[in-house]
Specification:
Blueprint (H helix, E strand, L loop, with lengths): L4 E6 L22 H9 L3 E6 L4 H14 L6 E5 L6 H4 L14 H11 L4 E10 L8 H10 L1 H7 L3 E6 L2 H10 L7 E3 L6 H9 L3 E4 L7 H7 L7 E3 L24 E2 L9 E2 L8 H11 L5 H17 L4
Helix pairs in contact: 4-6
């Protein structure tokens, strides 16, 4: 059975797709992004949204799209600043009140206006209190709220990041809810109560392997209404592993080798790929036995078209 997928979040600019791992600069194998993309297209992938978390990544994503898309209209990107990068990217170094760089958002808007057919969301932006060593709560909150300017000026949907910061996140979204139509909380790992509050804000929920590690994760994921559900890989991260509670639902397995034994026709162990999105679908199907996997797949695909590509059901 074949399915049609849209990966709403994939880090295709990551150096792992260039054969480099652990930020050492060591080249383990040849760059293989083209092969990775072909594997995705050959396994039901219709479109991929590249996650960009700073200005330089937006530029890199657009270059990647120009190189690999070949006019097929299958690769897209986001514009925004990831919460862990706000200190470095958005704030004027040494400023007394953490002042925002005045031209940074203008540059992002310029890229959007020059590439409207390829920029489909504002993000990845939000709050991440698990990694405060990279950026303080104070700066994250200020920069999260500030970036709603992008939402107002572009009318794009939001690709939102939330880690261990639910109450502040919800408060900020509530204050700015009139500034956007659609928003997706990607890579959701929160509690059932947090899910309930996000759904009350009319937000959508993005699920990947990181969302499905534990039995508690699975219990929450099972409660996401199908009409509010999207799927992603967050590749090269967030793969579903044999140690995860979700693995019992996985049916599709691709050939895989360690990076030291790299071959183009195999995946690399520990490196997630967009084609593995089928595993996320298989897990969700296992959690929602009252619906067929075909129905679930179709509903998720149509949800994604509506939110990011303006195609209402």
């Amino acid at each position: 059975m074949s399915y049609k997928f849209i990966d709403i979040g994939s880090n295709l600019c990551d150096e792992m797709f260039q054969g480099k791992y652990n930020h050492t600069g060591k080249q383990y194998h040849e760059a293989d992004l083209g092969t990775v993309l072909d594997r995705a297209w050959n396994n039901g992938m219709d479109k991929i949204i590249i996650t960009s978390g700073r200005l330089s990544e937006v530029k890199e994503s657009l270059e990647l799209i120009n190189k690999y898309d070949n006019g097929s209209n299958r690769l897209f990107t986001t514009i925004g600043v990831h919460p862990t990068r706000c200190s470095q990217e958005l704030v004027i170094e040494g400023s007394e009140n953490n002042e925002i760089k005045p031209d940074y958002i203008k540059e992002l808007l310029k890229l959007y206006n020059e590439n409207k057919d390829k920029v489909v969301a504002v993000g990845e932006f939000g709050l991440d209190y698990d990694r405060l060593q990279f950026c303080s709560k104070e700066i994250q909150i200020k920069c999260f709220e500030y970036q709603f300017i992008l939402a107002e000026k572009t009318n794009l949907p939001l690709f939102l990041h939330l880690r261990n910061a639910a109450q502040d996140f919800i408060d900020i979204v509530k204050r700015n809810r009139s500034k956007f139509k659609y928003g997706v909380v990607h890579s959701f790992t929160g509690t059932e109560d947090e899910l309930k509050q996000l759904l009350e804000l009319d937000l959508y929920i993005g699920i990947n392997g990181c969302s499905l590690k534990t039995e508690e994760n699975l219990s929450v994921a099972a409660k996401i209404p199908i009409e509010r559900l999207l799927i992603e890989t967050d590749s090269p991260y967030c793969d579903i592993r044999k140690t995860h509670a979700s693995y019992k639902y996985v049916k599709t397995v691709f050939p895989i080798l360690k990076k030291e034994k790299f071959k183009l026709d195999s995946q690399v162990q520990g490196r997630n790929e967009p084609c593995n999105i089928i595993n996320v679908l298989e897990v969700i199907s296992g959690l929602k036995p009252e619906q067929s996997i075909e129905e679930i797949s179709s509903h998720i695909y149509l949800n994604t078209l509506k939110i990011f590509f303006g195609k209402e059901n």
